[in-house]
Amino acid sequence: MPGKSKRTTETGSSPARPLTLPRSRRLRLRREFDRVFEVRCSATDDRLKVFAARNELAYCRLGLAVGRQIGGAVVRNRVKRLIREAFRHVQHELPPGMDLVCVARSGGDVTLCELRESLTRLCGVAAKKAQRRAAAD
Predict the structure, then answer these.
(1) In angstroms, how far is the first alpha carbon of the chain from the final one?
(2) Once rounded to an integer, what is the mean pLDDT over residues 20-29?
(3) What pLDDT shows up at residue 15?
(4) pLDDT tens digits, residue range 32-49?
(5) How confident is the model at residue 119, as a pLDDT?
(6) Which of 25, 28, 101, 106 is within CB 3.0–4.6 Å of 51 for a Cys-Cys bond?
(7) How far apart are CA 33 and CA 100, in angstroms?
């Protein structure tokens, strides 16, 4: 129907959460990245290294760091697109109130499915470390 704009899940039973990544959910400033790196709570696998720090918001924010060792500009941009897409899919499963910086460790042969798995697992581990550190302070 033209008047209805609610999104539904594959089963069509209930509204789905939007898979968007608005500007407010991204880390953009150097001081935001530096704050996350200063906390030094991270988790690593062969694809990604995820740094985490608590924020005062009700949602997670994502920052990306993809160095030249990953490949040329085309490869780096593809990896960034894949990480952003993976974050869009898993953002509602992550603990709220976290700033996350994902540092790519491998290049062009990574798939969206692999990144989603890595991101979910690593964000959970890094977030637990950051929460423990915040509770200790």
Answers:
(1) 53
(2) 86
(3) 60
(4) 999 999 999 999 999 999
(5) 93
(6) 101
(7) 9
One-letter amino acid at 119 equals L
Going from the C-alpha of 103 to that of each of 7, 36, 39, the distances in angstroms are 32, 12, 15
Tokens of 2: 């033209």
What structural domains and CATH numbers belong to the chain? 24-129 (3.30.230.10)
Taking Cα atoms as reference points, which of 46, 82, 40 lies closest to residue 62?
Answer: 82
| pTM score | 0.82
Alpha carbon of 132 to those of 65, 78, 93, 102, 125: distances in Å? 25, 34, 19, 20, 11
**At a CB cut-off of 8 Å and minimum separation 6, what does 64 contact?**
80, 83, 84, 101, 102, 104
Q: How far apart are CA 60 and CA 31, in angstroms?
A: 17
**DSSP per position, 2-46:** TT----B-TTSSSBPPP----GGGB--SHHHHHHHHHH-EEEE-S
